[in-house]
Amino acid sequence: xxxxxxxxRVSHDPERPLDPARWPMTVPAVARLVADGLDLAPGVxxxxxxxxxxxxxxxxxxxxxxxxxxxxxxxxxxxxTRPSESPLAGxxxxxxxxxxxxxxxxxxxxxxxxxxTFLEQHPxxxxxxxxxxxEMSHGExxxxxxxxxxxGPGLYCLDEPEAALSFTxxxxxxxxxxxxxxxxxxxxxxxxxxxxxxxxxxxxxxVGEWGLRETTWEDLQLVQHWRSFLAGPGRYLRHLLDxxxxxxxxxxxxxxx
Length: 257
Known about the structure:
- This protein has two domains: about 5-215, Rossmann fold (3-Layer(aba) Sandwich); about 220-255, no CATH class.
- The chain is about 30% helix and about 20% strand.
- It has seven helices and ten strands.
- A seven-stranded mixed sheet has the order 4-6-7-8-3-9-10.
- Helix 5 links the parallel strand 7 (about 155-160) and strand 8 (about 185-190).
- It is globular, with a radius of gyration of 19 Å.
- The N and C termini lie far apart (about 50 Å).
């Protein structure tokens, strides 16, 4: 029997209802997931959308439902400083893949500092890298984590990992994700990066007022905006800055937000 990915499907547990009038159910992507569920593809799945679209909320909820800390880290190093996660994780059911690995890791850009401290205070397995992570730049520490933790089958959840990475380092991350998938891993990642989202073979889910919909890289609004901006920055900037006073101007090009 062929081994299935760690998570085959994400669905709502009807015995744990969420108030439809309260956050996060007021977010269309969350409401769609609760109503219809989500089949999670093998390999890499990217959630792409504007700020507030719910992509990070979805990644966090899947990670927590799988057994990881909402603040990042592995299934073997669960920690918390100040609970702030949504109640969505507690209302989800994960259909685990037959014969799949149970290990997982959640890389969350905004809370990795706390995870580094946790590792310093709770060293395990004879690892020597943890005490020096705080001494590295944000991007360097991310690359160190990628090299030491992304190394086998399991579920890898990432929330906007490009926030700490340069263009070149983002390409390194793409190589890491490709390698770990070949080892049998599954990846769920929220991103604003058109570079990262171009990973060959990845499933792309467009997150917005419509909820969730599968799309292609070329059809992502993110990609279209970046292409347009790089082709002519002035067309965007003249709507944002007054040439003489430097004060904020009016609305940008059609479709620009």
